[in-house]
Amino acid sequence: MATQRPNKQADKDTKSGNEDAACLYTSSKAQSQPFERKIITINAIKTVIGLGAAAAVVYLYVPIPIPSLPTAGHRLVYTLRLQTPAFLILMAAILNVGMVRLHTPAINPIYGNAEHLVEFERRFLANHVEQMLLNVPGQLVLVSFLGEGHMKVIPILSLIFVFGRVSFYIGYRMSYLRRTVGFMSSFLPSCLIWLVNAYFVGRALVHNETIKL
């Protein structure tokens, strides 16, 4: 019996070591790979440079017809109307989920055990809702600070957002590594919008500016 104790202890140590190794392996596999980070980073940098250059060229040199918008109310209504494409994409994303469910076992989301069949569609829908919650309210807040002479920026922002959403869908459908362009084209402008909004809000608070309608 005394000779069995070391063997049992050795078996216990071996089992513990295997569990630690398995945990370490699982942990390493859970991390992204260097080539993945490299591809996404390069695509993100290219998107930032290309998107910034394109937006600047369009703003400075491309004539965009803007109606007369003398008051903040007119500018707000104009901005709301330009959000129509974003909501059309939202409707299409919802219909896409519904159509996939209709023609697959995922029609039963509780007991169908087929949610993987709509995983991509659900992920795109969730991402689009998240991006809209950032972009659309951001534009509405931004337009409350813009004068009539700077309203050209709103159709440009709306166009970039639609481009980003379409690019995200196509790229994500092809490969998870190709969704960066679409994501950055949607998320980056929203971040810039809210940073500008924060600046205007801070300036208004410091100088006690009144709201002009």
How is the topology of this model organized?
Blueprint: H1 4-30, H2 34-61, H3 72-81, H4 84-102, H5 119-143, H6 153-174, H7 180-207
Structure description:
It is a single chain. This protein is mainly α and 213 residues long. It has one domain: Membrane associated eicosanoid/glutathione metabolism-like domain (Four Helix Bundle (Hemerythrin (Met), subunit A), Up-down Bundle). α2 packs across α7, α4 runs antiparallel to α5 and α5 packs parallel to α7. The longest helix has 28 residues.
Structural key phrases:
213 residues, mainly alpha, Four Helix Bundle (Hemerythrin (Met), subunit A), 7 helices, globular, disordered N terminus, transmembrane helix, Transmembrane protein 79
